[in-house]
Amino acid sequence: YKLQVTQNSAARVLSHELYVSDREGDDSAGTGTKEKPFKTALQALTAFGKEPFPTIYVDSQKEGERWDVISNTQLKNLKKLCQRGQVKNETAAQKEIEDALRREKNLEEARKVVIKLDPSLPEPKLVKIRDTEAHRGERVKIFGWIHRLRRQGKNLMFVILRDGTGFLQCVLSDELVKSLMALYNNFLSIDVFSNIDNVQFFSTMHFLCE
Q1: Helix (H, G, I), strand (E, B) or coil at 167
Q2: In whole angstroms, what is the distance from residue 1 CA to residue 18 CA?
Q3: Residue 48 in contact with residue 30, Cβ under 8 Å?
Q4: Exposed, middle or buried by CB within 10 Å (0-12, 13-18, 19+), for 116?
Q5: SS3 102
Q6: 180 burial class (0-12, 13-18, 19+ CB within 10 angstroms)?
Q7: Using an 8 Å Cβ cutoff, are 3 and 16 in contact?
Q8: Which residues lie below 8 Å from residue 157, measured CB to CB, with a gap of 6+?
Q9: Which of 60, 50, 73, 59 is nearest to 20 (CA)?
Q10: What are the tens digits of pLDDT across the range 34-75?
Q11: Domains along the chain?
């Protein structure tokens, strides 16, 4: 019996016979030999990789016999499960590729967006979130961390900002949405995205009616 290690470090068994034992087998350490059988026949097929599969021996139910060939019905069902698993893995791999391409495209689009301060607007005042009520209608500047993101359509996004003194909802639109969403998609999760040291927002304070 031979054991071949592929590039992804997964062991593929090359043999004309595979052994499976529910009593003595181990799907993690097993190699499909009599000395080191697999615990499940499905793992044996998965380890071998593709058809034509070798003869699979399982625990015999006959007195005085150690091994018996797996039944055709059981083998047929296991082949179906194995094929489904392969299709699922291929689909997952394709999705990863598509997601990576989408993130790269979003990042390229974000690089084209140039965000500039409008010099015609009043100079913003640096404030903490806890003090924003006193600056209603004024232009402010706030530093903080992104606590939550929610996108609505292509041109609108709601951001919950936190700074240690409170939480504030910020509404972004148009080019700002494209830039921030591309960055978010590239980081994949809000857990990583929220660890960016500081996000700076410039805007005019408006209070919503309760």
Answers
A1: strand
A2: 9
A3: no
A4: exposed
A5: helix
A6: buried
A7: no
A8: 149, 150, 151, 171, 172, 173, 176, 177, 180, 181
A9: 59
A10: 899 999 888 888 877 777 788 889 988 888 899 998 888 888
A11: 18-108 (3.30.1910.20), 125-202 (2.40.50.140)
